[in-house]
Amino acid sequence: MYASVLRNDSISNPPSTAHDSPSVFAIQGLECWYGTHQVIRKVSLIIPERRITAIIGPSGCGKSTLIRCLNRINDLIPGFRMSGHILFKGRELDDPAIDPLTIRLKVGMVFQKPNPFPKSIYENVAYGPRIWELHRDRRLDDHVEKSLRKAALWDEVKDKLGQNALTLSGGQQQRLCIARALAVEPEVLLLDEPCSALDPIATGKIEELLLELKQRYTLVIVTHNMQQAARVSDETGFLLMGELIEFGPTEKLFTTPGDSRTEAYITGRFG
Amino acid sequence: MPDRHPSKIVERLFKLMALGALVIALGTLTALLVDALLDGGGRLNWQFLTSFPSRKPEQAGIASALVGTIYLMILTAACALPIGVGAALYLEEYVGKHWLARVIEVNIANLAGVPSIIYGLLGLELFVRMMGLGRSLLAGALTMALLVLPIVIIATREALRTVPSSIREASYALGASRWQTIWHQVLPLALPGILTGSILALSRAIGEAAPLITMGALTYIAFLPDSLLAPFTALPIQIFNWVSRPQPGFHANAAAGIVVLLAVLLIMNGLAVYVRQRAQKRLYL
Ligand SMILES: Nc1ncnc2c1ncn2[C@@H]1O[C@H](COP(=O)(O)OP(=O)(O)O)[C@@H](O)[C@H]1O
Ligand SMILES: [Mg+2]
């Protein structure tokens, strides 16, 4: 098949994106293992700045593992191992001279299930800035407000900042988690199936928010909802059993996929 | 289609057995309490609570034993909690799934099952004699701390495990260090579990007479301990002493002492339940 030839080519030369947005992440020949179980195989791709990059694929194909490499949060999992290169703005991400904690300051993350701390709404957002000693007192209050506004949550919670975050609805909790991540002023936001636990209305709100955040942040979103990828993303990568089958502009991938497996997946023939 | 579930009878039988077990457990407790109240109820008054031991049963009181038990409890908690929580934190959060942690875990579980009299012997040798603390309040508290330490460690590890990993991840994802994550997120959530476990461990310990008798705590103390190195007595020792006297008047005192001890235990267990319920409200709103 031509498709597989094309794919092999794209392994040695990471596909360049059509526009000239500078790359934030350049991933080359990434491989990941949990113990002896290999879950990412020779993945190469480029994540452009201030765009939304979607990773799609059936469940268990390694989407979470892939984006969790980008803030090195996989380091915390015993038995996790990776090889290959991830360049973050030109620097090797696993350079021993770089403290993974500072990477997480630049690369925020939002998880599949909303996971606010069981504390007040205010405390949730203020936690990151406090850890990093970014702001104090009045300035911290202002900063919390600013972060909640960015996450389009301020109007809904401004009168109950002291209330426990768990009293919010699922969609509000997820936007709170986005506000919490934005509060440390990252450059990148990783979102691992951020809407899979939400109803369609809450999902719509989050998608709207993502399009807005794109103005200032680089977003990487994992989703197994193809319509969602099609709606919000500029670039899409299709991952299957740990292999990046195809990566390119979202429109192209969904209209004229270059690989028969991509076509099979987006037309719903498997996964 | 059968008109009833095939396990219906087993279901009933099981329910009945569980109920039986409950009745036996509660019945024993009630019988004990009623018996103690019948025997010692007449002695339960302010004078009994505020008097020191005496050779005359009707003048003897429980003041030094009650205060000794309270001091002992506070000191034991002060020694065992920081060490126990620290050890559990280290094992659970830093060592992780290392085989050494498994070995230590099994050993701690075994230590929790060692008869309390052994801890008394250890306390006698280590604290009373080698460290020269004498038969003091401090030596007693350290001995009791050894006794509850394994249970505190086990309870703390269990409490730490109940903190959802999603909370830890949320903290790490913001760039928090391991210590910040533990201090700001994990410990506050685990604290109620740690406290309930520790309170229950302590309440078991204050009922123990054997280790204190082994290490040689005195029974006849006509004053309240005024320093860490002062001699002391405690409720179970006082009760034990009264029971072993021939005069029936002292037996009434022992019964009244048992009621006081049970009351202290009940208060502590009530506290444990209260702490747990408040915490659950916070985590599962
Ligand atoms: N912590 C882990 N330990 C061991 N195996 C894991 C772990 N997390 C994920 N896996 C395995 O890695 C593979 C990819 O998982 P994941 O990246 O979560 O996939 P996805 O997010 O696409 O559903 C799966 O086979 C899964 O079982
Ligand atoms: Mg996943």
Q: What does this entry show, briefly?
A:
By secondary structure, chain A is an alpha/beta fold. Chain A contains eleven helices and ten strands.
Q: What layout of secondary structure does this protein have?
A:
The complex is a heterodimer of chains A (271) and B (285).
Chain A lengths: L1 H11 L10 E12 L2 E12 L3 E5 L6 H7 L10 E9 L2 E2 L7 H7 E4 L10 H11 L5 H14 L3 H4 L12 H13 L5 E5 L7 H14 L4 E5 L3 H7 L2 E6 L2 E7 H6 L4 H7 L5
Parallel strand pairs in A: 3-8, 3-9, 6-7, 7-8
Antiparallel strand pairs in A: 1-2, 1-4, 4-5, 9-10
Chain B lengths: L7 H33 L5 H5 L12 H33 L3 H14 L3 H15 L6 H25 L3 H9 L4 H29 L3 H6 L19 H9 L4 H36 L2
Helix pairs in contact in B: 1-11, 3-6, 3-8, 3-10, 4-6, 5-6, 6-8, 7-8, 8-11, 10-11
The structure holds adenosine-5'-diphosphate and magnesium ion.
Can you walk through the features of this model?
- The complex is a heterodimer of chains A (271) and B (285).
- With 271 residues, chain A is an alpha/beta fold.
- Chain A has one domain (2-266): P-loop containing nucleotide triphosphate hydrolases (Rossmann fold), CATH 3.40.50.
- In chain A, 37% of the residues lie in helices and 25% in strands.
- Chain A has 11 helices and 10 strands.
- Chain A has helices at residues 2-12, 63-69, 100-106, 121-131, 137-150, 154-157, 170-182, 200-213, 226-232, 250-255, 260-266, and strands at 23-34, 37-48, 52-56, 80-88, 91-92, 107-110, 188-192, 218-222, 235-240, 243-249.
- Chain A has a 6-stranded mixed beta sheet, with helices on both faces. A 4-stranded antiparallel beta sheet of chain A has the order 2-1-4-5, with helices on both faces.
- In chain A, a hairpin with a 2-residue loop joins strand 1 and strand 2.
- By secondary structure, chain B is mainly α.
- Chain B has one domain (62-283): MetI-like (MetI-like fold, Orthogonal Bundle), CATH 1.10.3720.
- In chain B, helix 4 packs across helix 6, helix 7 packs antiparallel against helix 8 (178-206) and helix 10 packs antiparallel against helix 11.
- The two termini of chain B are 42 Å apart.
- The model of chain B has no long low-confidence stretch (mean pLDDT 88).
- The complex binds adenosine-5'-diphosphate (ADP) and magnesium ion.
